[in-house]
């Protein structure tokens, strides 16, 4: 926390984004009223309903999902020493999509309790596929990251093929499956806030605690070993926590891309590469980005919503390009 | 009785694939010496260093670190005693130099203990010793090859290890970085550290090492003082090259490579 100037403007920016996103929408509720309603609780009026039942759980979900996706990018880039890494390369997104597709086809009624059948299937799919990727990569997964990344790509292709097959056999459900994979938070409710809180926040805290070890691991397998770390075991723990947290988020939001790839670069650029601070800063950055992106998804074309993955890609890619080009003179993003 | 830093008992190692076999080697590695491992590519220098660092486990036999079997050491305790700089390419994201060298304190601090005044002093004195003061707060991605190699050694020395293993410390470096790194290794050995480095240049070994081990086909063929080992006919046999001996103005023996014309006759 010390020596971290980023949080001085990061946290106020996040608070501002949260309040802004609660206040604005198809119906505008002035900030003063938002404050009052938040302080006194759900009184039952229509504004109370909008804030407590709809917008507040939604922005909180956005913040929690964005935060953990960004952290997932940090740990994967650090461990694989590769600036293009992100947690989806471990098979999380394809596994979640496959799980979700199966759930959509199996249960058109898709019970609406807690995480929902869709969420449970997506979460299980993500975790199962990630485990398969690790098993396929074998014991040298961290020592030879390209083995792991290539296994991830291969298994993701298989999942994608199965999804396409399922879609080809079930024309009437194609739209639902496609929209799920593009990501959305329109189904956010308090149960999901609770689910995200108990899964992603502990993951994030543990990873912050392991920050210094991730610093050491990011120097490479043999270097890390030389500095008194068990590289394979430590890296496996970090990746397992990363996969768990990211899968839990993707189960709620669908596959929102770009956050995990982009936010770590921005946070590294603004607050330095030491992982303890970087993880905290990326959490804040990811939360801000997703709150704003979800806000844009609601506001750009009301009353219908634009899929969140489209918004993050359109917002994120140009910014990333701008950063990469801007940094040319002074060092590089990859090292 | 003072335990020898590293004791090898019938050590052998075979990779999972291929014919190569290292050892059997039995010996005690003394402290206070800069030992140069010399031999052609692929004879087992890097494998030996990896075994001595604990990255590889012996196929048979064992290695004792200060009298205790290597596998029995907790990794962080091992990290306080042994530092290893491998040939693995290291490109961590652009840490500030002072943070990068500070990583060497990890075995002492673990994940949670803060850098104390003592730790900072160690890091600062390394930065000063290597003349890297102007880069202190800058990103290591801006360092040149020679500066980065110095930073790596600074990081390893910040670990304050008893044993330092270094795979090709002088590779790709300009003369100044090479001389500084090698003379620092010699100096650290004089202060009591046990230093093993794989080295390719015979004159580097001649000038800086206290002892040379000559490796071929996974075995140590000869070991002893540089001037003796490097004069022996074994060296010429291993490399299949006739080196010329000459003496510098202050009387030190050096080895020179044969001119191209001789080689052409030799190999054609």
How would you characterize this protein structure?
The complex is a heterodimer of chains A (335) and B (268). Chain A contains 14 helices and no strands. Chain A is globular and about 60 Å long. With 335 residues, chain A is an all-alpha fold. The model of chain A is unreliable at 328-335 (pLDDT under 50). Chain A has helices at residues 6-23, 31-40, 46-80, 92-106, 116-137, 145-169, 174-182, 190-209, 211-217, 221-226, 231-253, 259-271, 275-299, 308-326. In chain A, 74% of the residues lie in helices and 0% in strands. Chain B has 268 residues and is of the alpha/beta class. Chain B has one domain (6-267): Rossmann fold (3-Layer(aba) Sandwich), CATH 3.40.50. Chain B has helices at residues 45-53, 75-81, 97-102, 106-109, 117-129, 145-158, 175-190, 202-208, 226-229, 233-239, 260-267; strands spanning 6-13, 22-29, 34-38, 60-65, 68-69, 82-85, 163-167, 194-198, 211-216, 219-224, 244-247, 253-256. In chain B, strand 11 (244-247) and strand 12 (253-256) form a beta hairpin. In chain B, helix 5 packs antiparallel against helix 6 (145-158). Chain B is globular, with a radius of gyration of 19 Å. The interface between A and B is large, with 32 and 39 residues.
N-to-C span of chain A: 24 Å
CATH architecture of chain B: 3-Layer(aba) Sandwich
Shape of chain A: globular
Percent range of helical residues of chain B:
25-40%
* CATH topology annotation of chain A: ABC transporter involved in vitamin B12 uptake, BtuC
CATH T-level fold name of chain B: Rossmann fold
Strand content of chain A: under 5%
Q: Quickly name the level 1 CATH class of chain A.
A: Mainly Alpha
Given helix and strand content, the structural type of chain B is alpha/beta
Pair with the biggest interface: A-B, 32 and 39 residues
CATH architecture of chain A: Orthogonal Bundle
Q: Report the β-strand fraction of chain B as a percent range.
A: 15-25%
CATH superfamily of chain B: P-loop containing nucleotide triphosphate hydrolases
What's the number of structural domains of chain B? 1
Mean pLDDT of chain A: 87
Main β-sheet, spatial strand arrangement of chain B:
6-7-8-3-9-10
Which ranges of chain B are low-confidence, i.e. pLDDT below 50, for 5 or more consecutive residues?
none
Rounded to an integer, what's the Rg of chain A over CA atoms? 20 Å
